[in-house]
Amino acid sequence: MCVDRDGCEIEAGCGSADEVRTLSGSMMSPAPVKPSAAELHCKPGHKFRAALLRCRSPAAAAGILSFGNILNYMDRYTVAGVLLDIQRHYEVLDSEIGLLQTVFICSFMVAAPIFGYLGDRFNRKVILSCGIFFWSIVTLSSSFISKEYYWLFVLSRGLVGIGESSYSSISPTIIGDLFTNNSRTMMLSVFYLAIPLGSGLGYILGSSAKEAAGDWHWALRVSPVLGITAGTLILVFVPEPKRGIADQMGGRIRTRTSWLCDMKALAKNRSYVFSSLASAAVSFATGAFGMWIPVYLARAQVVQKAAEPCSKATCSSTDSLIFGTITCVTGLLGVLIGAATTRLCRQKTERADPLVCAVSMLGSAIFICLIFVVAKKSIVGAYVCIFIGETLLFLNWAITADILMFVVIPTRRATAVAFQSFTSHLLGDAGSPYLIGLISDTLQKSYATSALWRFLSLGYALMLCPFIIVLGGMFFLATALFFLDDREKADKQLSQITRPPSTVKV
After folding, report:
1. Rounded to whole angstroms, how far apart are CA atoms 404 and 402?
2. Which helix (H) or strand (E) holds 239?
3. 144, 156, 146, 135: which is closest to 225 by C-alpha?
4. pLDDT the model gives residue 270
5. In Å, how far from its chain's centre is CA 415?
6. In what helix (H) or strand (E) does residue 364 lie, and over which residues does it extend?
7. Residue 302 and residue 304: Cα distance in Å, rounded?
8. How confident is residue 262, by pLDDT bands cut at 50, 70 and 90?
């Protein structure tokens, strides 16, 4: 349907008036015949529809999608904010509590390729909304599981992972089709800012809701309401842009490759492969830290005689609140500094994106190592190291997504995002929380159990993270070697499969 400025339907001569507004302007193929006044008429609801369409601006869509991403990660880390309470309630070991995140990530990564395939071929915003509604309902239901059914609580986290994988796999591709170049970098930075912001708010929400209600179960009953709200906003206000329209200024994709062809092309794309491996290193560290750092700091305070071991029905939430706040602030700083640094460095070298990621990863490893050196003596010193280390680690999130947009053509971006997510979780946070918990349990069995040894064993297990981060920095350096060649190949391939419009009006 075509509408004029007043919201009236134009029945004649509007055959190809498809329009997408970007920050560079509006792009459309104008109608070949101008309708007469007699061919225009208004029907009930058309003015409302026109007003609704005008609200579907790219900036508004990016804002709504970013809000949904905040809820995505808020829901994911609400459990981590009340981890000590869950462990005490269900009476499980470190390795068993680490299984919560492992099961979540495993289901997440298995579902991601499926949603990547669907996202390249079907209506993306419908898939996003259904995913949000699903995970919100499951999260709410899990808050009513009794202590005899820990396995059911673990299973519920797996189902939540399936719902959230749809969002992480598809939503960046909509932003990629609404913006280009520096505008896309800026909007992706806002979108990926939601990762640390949502993660930090998850700790804060979980801890605050538990304290207010006096029951940790209420930590899982707030985010579902917000999730249903976000799903509704996506259905109403987020447009479904044509794939690749922003890159080609209105050109139409005339050819769609098969899924098998897409996978072969991605496997040969060296920049994509190495940046995916680097993302896995980031996921390994953030997954382990997000689950275990608040517990580690709580044990550190017991060793320093600054706090007593948790023996009450409700454990102290101070460390979760502080860590959540630090995560929010460092996420904001990291993403903003990363975007600004990349834009500045692009004036010096075209390989700026992977090089900035590599330097930030290597710098982050140094300060994360220092956490385990100073934590035994100074909690404040540990928080300072966490602040600097996380800021440097968060620099690369949005930049990694932008690298993918540069080296992968639009028609296979959802698949690329999904398999990058699959790889990063498979090699990263799918196993890191459980692995860290397992190493900690094994070390504790070696000596007599004490508060000091429980603290040290977890610290020794977490020392694996800085080494993985250094490895990720090496992968980003490898990405820099092939980035320019792969970007040029993507540009050539896109021009070959795109049919330019007869007339483009900007």
Report:
1. 5
2. none
3. 135
4. 92
5. 15
6. helix 352-374
7. 5
8. confident
Residue among 242, 280, 278, 273 at smallest CA distance from 408: 273
Q: In angstroms, how far is CA 167 from the centroid of its own chain?
A: 8
CB 351 within 8 A of CB 408: no
Q: Where do we find the tokens 């929380």? A: 433
For the four alpha carbons of 314, 319, 323 and 324, in that order, the dihedral sign comes to positive
Nearby residues of 499 by Cβ (< 8 Å), 6 or more positions away: 251, 252, 253, 254
| C-alpha–C-alpha distance, residues 308 and 253, integer Å | 63
- Residue 191 tokens, joined: 């979108």
11 alpha-carbon distance from chain centroid: 42
Q: How far apart are CA 7 and CA 43, in angstroms?
A: 9
Q: How far apart, in whole angstroms, are the C-alpha atoms of residue 381 and residue 373?
A: 10
Residue appearing with tokens 């990694």: 400
Angle between helices 464-496 and 451-462 (to 10 degrees): 30
Residues pairing with 252 in the sheet:
499
Query: Could you give the residue ranges of the DSSP H alpha helices within 18-149?
Result: 46-55, 58-81, 83-90, 94-119, 124-142
CB 98 within 8 A of CB 437: yes
Give the integer Cα–Cα distance in Å for 147 and 3. Answer: 57
pTM: 0.66
* Three-class DSSP category at 3: strand
Residue 316 contacts by C-beta under 8 Å, 6 or more apart in sequence? 84, 298, 307, 310
* Distance from C-alpha of 225 to C-alpha of 248, rounded to nearest angstrom: 39
- DSSP alpha helix (H) spans, 179-269: 181-213, 223-237, 259-268
pLDDT digits (tens, 9 = 90+) for 171-227: 777 877 777 666 776 777 778 777 777 877 887 887 788 877 777 888 888 888 888
pLDDT in tens, 285-323: 988 887 788 888 888 887 777 666 666 555 666 767 787
The rounded distance, in Å, linking the Cα atoms of 331 and 204 is 15
Q: Quick one: tokens of 199?
A: 């993660």
Top mean pLDDT of 86-95, 116-125, 239-248, 378-387 is at 378-387
Distance (Å, rounded) from C-alpha 329 to C-alpha 348?
A: 29
Residue 72: which of 212, 217, 250, 226 has the closest Cα?
226
CA-CA distance, 162 to 103, in Å (whole number)?
11
* Per-residue pLDDT tens digits for 107-126: 887 887 788 778 777 778 78
Residues 266, 422: Cα–Cα separation, whole Å: 13
The answer to whether 379 and 301 have CB atoms below 8 angstroms apart is yes
Backbone dihedral angles phi then psi of residue 235, each to the nearest 5 degrees: -60, -35
Q: Give the separation between CA 497 and CA 409, rounded to whole angstroms.
A: 10
The residue whose two tokens read 């970013």 is 66
Return phi, psi of residue 2, to 5°: -110, 145
